[in-house]
Amino acid sequence: MSRKDDPFAQEGRSGLVGWGRDHGRVVREAMHHISARLATSLIVWLLVGIALALPAGLYLLQLNLADVGSDWDGRPGLSVYFKVDTPEAELRALAQQLRAEPQVQEVEETSSTQALAAFHAHTGLSDALELLEENPLPASLRAMLVSGATVPDLERLAAIAGKASGVQEVVVEKTWLERVSDITTVVSRLSGVLAVLFGVGALLVTATSVRLAIEARLEELKVQTLVGATERQLRRPFLYFGAIYGAGGALVALMLLSMTLLVVETPLSRLAGSYGATLEFTGFDPAFLLVMLCTGAGLGVAGALVAARQRLHDLEVL
């Protein structure tokens, strides 16, 4: 017997087609209900969008602050200044010792003679320096750390440099790293707290909207119960309501984030340029868009489940 003549296969196909048609009908009814109350739906989408936009925006901010702390060209380092008349052999010895450290990417040496030549080239005081019997500028070196180096790494290397012979001062360039790290931690924790709070808010907004939809169709639900409709069949349209409300709110949130990025792009580019860096905003990619849509739809469905179970059970429709 061929598969075409198999009655069980035909029954399976017809059951699957019927299931798809039933769901398609429910989706069309949900879209019709939402479009018929477009003003109310826009308010729901806007409220859900605002609730999703703030924690999502803080997440993007935290992500880019973390990138600044690890990839910025102004990554931390230290400058070591030697005493005047310190032999260049001690400068080279310390430079070699720092190059052997795995956290150090590059070491730049500047002898006292090179420092004097640079001073001649960049200032107009060369005649005054020629009147001095000795070169007043000390030798120095600058150590740049690898990407991902931490503040403890800086402090350990500074301690090594401070113990070297002939060293007068060690300047640790870590202030900006500490501030960025602290801000990133605060933003990360704040985004987590707000994600929970505003997620609950979005769920409640959707639950309230679905509850109103149940009230509007209460008599219809009673009739469906009398003719044998199951609990899933009664609840199904409202789950689609919630998914549409949540996904629409996520789209609104994405639009709000896009407009915000357009507004702040110019001043942020100017700020990054003042530090010699190029603004490369990351995180707002297709994966982020998909996660936002799924999150919005999931919160909408959860809110619809809460509203449907509570309201239908209280009225003893099921």
Structure explained in plain terms:
The chain has helices at 7-36, 38-71, 88-99, 112-122, 126-130, 151-162, 175-216, 218-226, 231-274, 286-314; strands at 77-82, 104-110, 140-145, 167-173. The chain has 318 residues and is an alpha+beta fold. The chain has 2 domains: 26-70 and 179-314, no CATH class; 77-173, Alpha-Beta Plaits.
Overview in brief:
With 318 residues, the chain is an alpha+beta fold.
Task: Provide the β-strand percentage band.
Answer: 5-15%
Computed structural class: alpha+beta
The figure for the number of domains is 2
Low-confidence stretches: 6-13
Binned, the helix content reads over 70%
SSE succession: HHEHEHHEHEHHHH
Instruction: Give the neighbour order of strands across the main sheet.
Output: 2-3-1-4
Number of helices: 10
Q: Ends: how far apart?
A: 44 Å
- Tell me the Rg in angstroms: 33 Å
Q: Give a count of the beta strands, DSSP E runs of length 2 or more.
A: 4
Mean pLDDT: 77
Largest sheet: 4 strands, antiparallel
Shape: rod-shaped
Write the layout of secondary structure elements.
Blueprint: H1 7-36, H2 38-71, E1 77-82, H3 88-99, E2 104-110, H4 112-122, H5 126-130, E3 140-145, H6 151-162, E4 167-173, H7 175-216, H8 218-226, H9 231-274, H10 286-314
Characteristic terms for this protein:
318 residues, alpha+beta, Alpha-Beta Plaits, 2 domains, four-stranded antiparallel beta sheet, 8% strand
